[in-house]
Amino acid sequence: MFEYYQKTNLENWLENLYIEHNILSISDLTIYNVADKLNVNVIFMENAKEVAIWDDKAAAIFLNPEKLEEEVRAIFFHELCHPLRHYGDQVNSVRTFMTLQERQANQFMLYASMPFYMIKKLDMSTYNYQWASFLSYKFNVPINIAQKRAEQILQRIQQASIDQVIREQRSTYKPSNDPSEWSTETNMIMNKLYRQIGCKQT
Predict the structure, then answer these.
(1) d(CA 2, CA 113)
(2) How far is residue 101's CA from residue 97's CA, in Å, rounded to a whole number?
(3) Ranges for the IrrE N-terminal-like domain (predicted)?
(4) Which of 116, 127, 104 minimizes the C-alpha distance to 26?
(5) How do the domains of the chain map onto residue ranges?
């Protein structure tokens, strides 16, 4: 089912990081475990502004415990991107650069909260590609986040499948330069072309 899925460079990087730190299964994806393995401090504070603060020596992520657990998890994996992938701080960043970082963090969140190497171990065959609810339940993330990940995976599988069919067709297609082997449609097109350029077909 997943043989056509193509991982991005970011996915490969994150997968290697997780495996290097022994984050191997869904049960390893708790906030405290991931934070501890990756040397990030997590601070729960009521009404806290959910944000990551980091420098070259340390990193901390502030989370609001009053929110639903699945929402807190999504925020954590979003904020985790900043100390792991970004340099400097957002406070002194220009707005366009901050926007770029936030987009990157949103993409990172999908990979970090639902790593593909964990997804492909699950039995998804009985869900007929209706994966969002299943992923939301298994990885404890909001349904809209799971829906984005499911759509992302399916789109890549479909695109890779189409690309494979095109490659196979191209490998078996042999264009001919012999007019006697041309189809009627090809002959009509070529005759029209010859008339336009004032040449005779040989």
Answers:
(1) 18
(2) 6
(3) 36-150
(4) 116
(5) 9-165
pLDDT in tens, the chain (202 residues): 788 889 999 999 999 999 999 999 999 999 999 999 999 999 999 988 899 998 888 999 999 999 999 999 999 999 999 999 876 554 555 567 678 888 899 999 999 999 999 999 998 877 767 899 999 999 999 999 999 999 999 899 888 778 777 777 776 655 556 667 667 766 776 676 656 555 555 5
DSSP sequence for the chain: --TT----HHHHHHHHHHHHTT--SGGG--HHHHHHHTT-EEEE-TT---EEEE-SS-EEEEE-TTS-HHHHHHHHHHHHHHHHH--S-STTS-HHHHHHHHHHHHHHHHHHHS-HHHHTTS--GGGTT--HHHHHHHHT--HHHHHHHHHHHHHHHHHHHHHHHHHHHHHH------GGG--HHHHHHHHHHHHHHT----
Q: Can you list the pairs that 49-52 forms with residues at least 24 positions away whose Cβ atoms lie under 8 Å?
A: 50/75, 50/79, 51/79, 52/79, 52/80, 52/82, 52/83
Which residue matches tokens 């366009």? 96
